[in-house]
Amino acid sequence: MTTNYTPILQLALPVTGELNGTWGDVVNDNITSMIEQAIAGKASISTWVAASHTLTTADGTTDEARCAMLELTGSPGGAAQVICPTRTKLYVVNNLTTGGYAVTLKTSGGTGISVPNGKAMILYCDGTNVVEGVNYVASAATAATADKWTTARNLAGNSVDGSANVAFANKFIVQGTTDTGLTNAQFLGALGTGIVKNTTTTGVLSIALSGTDYAPATSGTSILKGNGSGGFSNASAGTDYAPATSGTSILYGNGTGGFSNLGSVIILANEDDAARTIRPRLDAAGPHQPQAGCWPGPTAWCARPPGCARTRPGLTASETSSSRPRWWCRFARSG
Predict the structure, then answer these.
(1) Closest alpha carbon to 125 in 9, 42, 41
(2) What distance in Å separates the CA atoms of residue 299 and residue 305, rounded to the nearest whole number?
(3) Element spanning 146, H or E
């Protein structure tokens, strides 16, 4: 007759009439030793094939699947899996592999449970899949208040001694989106994308508005100006600032909010004679008479050009009565 074996732990089941004279060895090696392995045995697993390892099984002799503890070592090279038999069994799994990888204990057709690197978990196979052996601890769920600290400490303006919850009502700026333990906190993750501004009267952070809090990006090359209502608008060439010119004229304010070409300027010296030098230069240049003027200079010269004033507007009495004659003329070429 042939010895049978139990379906879960694969312990020997001698049948009547067999093992005459050898039953002691079978009981010791194939039953007693295997029970000890199932209760307190440890299998060290360090060999991996494509980040996977299948537990060995055997009738009546040592195997990995029967051991109570699975100690995982070596380098699986990635997130790994250990495949156990599809039969009920309790396991303590300790993930000591190198490389920082998690290892999942599972059946061949199940999803299993992932054991983080450096952590140990109590798991069991329910005959179909591997599930957590412990997911609730009554004492932790119904724990009373904690012991007080020997010395209370201030945390964000609140005295904390560890004996009870403390509601933090101060302002906080927190990375993230929410935290029920903080009151009136400002969460950066709850803001939109943009430039953050602070409102000084409230201390509240918000996203700055383009065109109001800062000059907006433009697709052109316009100069921006404050529009008087807290925003920005495009400045106008020739009104808000002197326009670019293609020539070499000097620009001057034209008195109507814009700019005009100054035209040509003749600089005269004190030695220049009015009749023989100054007037011939003006006649040759062809001035636009309303833009021609002089201040104090020879009376005969100032009277000659039509529209030429004796004094320049804005000169003081001392300037107009100076004993040292001075003259000035500004004009634009006709045409």
Answers:
(1) 9
(2) 11
(3) none
Tens of pLDDT, residue by residue over 222-277, are 777 777 776 777 777 777 777 766 556 666 666 676 666 666 556 666 666 666 77
Provide the residue count of the chain: 335
Joined tokens for residue 7 = 């379906």
Q: Number of C-alpha atoms within 13 angstroms, CB side, residue 38?
A: 20
Q: Of 72, 133, 95, which is closest to residue 64 (Cα–Cα)?
A: 72
Name the token pair of 118. Answer: 């450096």
Give the integer Cα–Cα distance in Å for 65 and 36.
Answer: 13
Question: How is residue 237 annotated by DSSP?
Answer: B
pTM summary value: 0.42
What does the pLDDT look like over 282-301, one tens digit per residue?
667 665 444 444 444 444 33
**Around 89, how many Cα atoms within 13 Å sit in the side-chain half-sphere?**
28
> How many Å apart are CA 290 and CA 330, to the nearest integer?
10
239 within 8 A of 253, measured Cβ to Cβ: no
Asked if 250 contacts 244 with a C-beta cutoff of 8 angstroms, the reply is no
- Where do the domains of the chain lie? 1-135, 267-331
Q: What is the mean pLDDT of the chain?
A: 75
From CA 188, how far away is CA 176, in angstroms rounded?
6
Which SS3 state, helix, strand or coil, does residue 28 take? helix
| Inter-residue contact 124 to 91 (CB < 8 Å) | yes
